[in-house]
Amino acid sequence: MNNPLDSSIQFLPGIGPTRAALIDRELGLKTFGDLIGFYPFRYIDRSGITSISSITSSEAAVQIMARIVRVRLYGVGSNIIYDRVPDGTVPQGGGQAVKFNLVKRMSVIVQDASGEMELVWFKGVKYMFPKMATGGTYVFFGKPSVYGQRFNMVHPEVDVPPSGPGTMGVGTLTGVYTSTEKLKNSGVTGKVMNRMMASALDQCLQYVPESLPDYILNAKGLVPKRFALRNIHFPKSQNDLSKAVRRLKFEELFLLQLALLKQKYVRSRSAVGIPMPKVGEAFNACYNALPFDLTGAQKRVIKEIRSDMMSGHQMNRLLQGDVGSGKTMVAVLSALIAVGNGCQACIMAPTEVLAQQHFANVQKYLAPTGVKAALLTGSTSAKDRRILHEGLENGSIGIIIGTHALIEDNVTFHRLGLAIIDEQHRFGVEQRAKLWTKGNSGVAPHILVMTATPIPRTLAMTLYGDLDVSVIDELPPGRKPIQTLQIAEGKRPELYRFMKSQIAKGRQVFIVYPLIFENEKLDYKALEEGYEDIVEHFPLPDYKVAIVHGQQTNEVKQFNMDAFSSGRANILVSTTVIEVGVDVPNASVMVIENVERFGLSQLHQLRGRVGRGAAASFCILVKGQKISRESQKRIDLMCATENGFELAEEDMKLRGPGDMEGTQQSGLPVSLGIASLAKDGMLLQEAREYAESILKDDPELTDTKNAPLVQELKRGKYKVAKNFSQIS
Ligand code: ADP
Ligand code: MG
Hints:
This protein is of the alpha/beta class and about 725 residues long. A hairpin with a 5-residue loop joins strand 2 (about 60-75) and strand 3 (about 80-85). Helices cover about 40% and strands about 20% of the residues. Adenosine-5'-diphosphate binds near residues 295, 327 and 328.
């Protein structure tokens, strides 16, 4: 027999094949099962309608139900372009077609029994205007703001009022579903959605299986699945809705963590690693010669890495640490453990510049050890390459540093024991997988992935739920805080004066321009113009300006970079190519142009380029002309904190985890339906701990009481992409 959950939504009353196809295209819903898994994002609470006169603060969003009494469109200088009042008053502007490109603002006056209020739209007027018929009554939902002496509401959400109480035989809360313009235009309104849901639930709820075993429902105090589904769509009360939400969120987070952890356990039992029982002489020689003490965090992380490498299982560890927290040091010491156990290590960097810099640093640390290191990049000559290949094959090279040339070349190692990948998000999954084949005699090397893009804990738990995570949460002592300031474009003369005063003190300045792929041409133009402007204001012979961008050849790029790193150039104008890793301790000023176009974590990376030397450092954010509220928030945050993890948490709240930088390429393993990684951190933690405790008792989930869980994991939604986090 067919499962009713799999029936097509076209069989719902009033839908049919055409609407069904549209709903599929717009919302991706095909079956009854899909439909009832599509939850409201908000509820209209009929008991929660506020009367206009009782709005007393702009603290919280309110919902009013009111009639439209006047609609006005304003152009520049509050010139009235269109005026619509009830009962056929002739509109100013004479009823001609409205030229929406001239409209700056739409003002809608609404009225309920208690009073009047103004609603304002600055955007989307073309779309909203035709819907705002005078005389119509709607529910408006939004945050009041104080304007003059009164409250108004900017860009409220607009809904058709729920029709008479008890439409669905339920309480006062009506679900509001995500919709699109196309759906609304073809009559799939909120009301139609509610009707579809009611009918689908009536027909198929009884076939929905309970996905969590009873013992879990009891232990966690969760309501049954069917109750949750009924009440997420048609809550009988606020209390029942809360129970439904908690149940569904917990289920989602719990199953996700269960899938990730199970994979991790399977791996850690089966992945044989090269045992490295000692730290070795090279490690000690390097350690004892260090000119500074390791920070507590560095020591802790090295201990974690050491115990992994000793264990006989393969290490798969993610090392997170803010820019400048000393990850390179940790990488070198880890590599030396491998060398001390008769193996080789490789360090892969995402760019040539960075590989070279790593190489220079590593050489410094290796001096007292006698271990030989080498550099292999795209521009290594064929002759040098042959020598390198030989050294790697016979084992005389202990540590190799390079770009992806390392894996693309047909390099053979004598005995590769540890692969360190820096700035992991720039490596594709396939590239990482190639490393496996570089291990020898079938034993994969230990893997250490390092990233300076701080990932919030909740996201890390999900993205890397199957990796062990170490965090360096402490900067080496003596770092001077970086002063971050924001300025408007108009303040450029003052900025230039400030730059000159810093250069007079012998410091160097970075100026970074955004480069967004879709806008490449325009962006290069802005960069060129910016460069011209700088050269004009900072003329030779007093000043020397270098420019670096992605369209230059490697030689030109290198030449300009060298000019800056060696101190010959005072100013480096560039695109974000300098984002990763460039180390010029004498550079104390970072100027970021069109700051609103950068994401928070990218800004944070850029800022990390200064503050490396002894001088007081500055990061100056230059704002373009039009700044959205969200951009302004980001800029304020940058000025408020230097803590990368704090910024990452906030970034995630502002933009949602799907958009987080550094995660696009790896991608979230699953898309969450109801839970939010940004907002449900506590519940995620609880779900993870509970999943851990279940796997501790029943690692293979073979106990019959856990059969429903196995069933859920099999259904695929929670299957984590294979080799997702470098595990395959
Ligand atoms: P990351 O790779 O995390 O950005 P680095 O390893 O490049 O950071 O370290 C930044 C700077 O701090 C380097 O110049 C390094 O020599 C120095 N450094 C690293 N660890 C310490 C420490 N424990 N004490 C003092 N300086 C340190
Ligand atoms: Mg680094």
